[in-house]
């Protein structure tokens, strides 16, 4: 009987790696969806309030859910280091506990990013991503406009519930960014008696700055419907208006991740309004934003946010230092300094 010869094909290593890596893109939405699930089930908050690791049975009882379903959710999130397994007290029973990542997902923690996860995973914010290729092909109708019939700012103005979710998400990033600025370079606020936060949303960033620098009188400047919902804060005055019309006068103007929402032409006009609002001899514009190419360890964050700018804004973009410098020069400013933070943000001080 003739021997049957089987020839084994060896898949090249780079092909095998690619076949494994591609699943990160096929199912790339999965971690976000499961983290959102954990936030909605209050798992980070429940574990934070429990002094010792919680067993599956206890956690399921607290949530009011099926143990089998919860086990699968927790197994996935442990793999992604969102949660961890630890022994319960001195027993051999294994329970669930927080990690540094899940501490950022408690709903009311000082550095919580939970509201930003919830914002970016809403159907409203996800829908524009389906329009990305159409925008690349014709470069006419922006993805958010194509999905919702208006731009992001018009949509939030007409939908108070989404506006609330949006403001809460932006407040997350503001808390982290302001804390980094105050810790690394608090001198940017020295000598200021008044400062206007342009596009300051609900006033979270300015509130934190004024708390740390009580000598500053803060002016939170945003669209009327935004400041109308902003909570009253000691040392902060809420003013409604458009930065394309004017900017309230102050010793300094402050932008935190606002200018990246707008085109170069829009940014130049906004910066010109700022130059008119500050003293020409002692005034300055403080910009806390991403600078592409400045920080290799955070480069991926900046590149992802640049894609978010395409999906969600009116021709906004992340900028290199050369592109930022162009805006400053065209708006009539003469010099600037830049400081890098531990987060993906940088602080730019721009002078007339």
TrEMBL record:
GO terms for biological process: methylation. It holds the Pfam family Dimerisation. Residues 129-333 form the O-methyltransferase C-terminal domain. One of its GO terms (molecular function) is O-methyltransferase activity. SUPFAM superfamilies: S-adenosyl-L-methionine-dependent methyltransferases, Winged helix' DNA-binding domain. Transmembrane segments: none annotated. InterPro entries: COMT-like, COMT_C, COMT_dimerisation, SAM-dependent_MTases_sf, WH-like_DNA-bd_sf, WH_DNA-bd_sf. It comes from the Eukaryota. Belongs to the class I-like SAM-binding methyltransferase superfamily. Cation-independent O-methyltransferase family. COMT subfamily. This is O-methyltransferase. The lineage of its organism: Eukaryota, Viridiplantae, Streptophyta, Embryophyta, Tracheophyta.
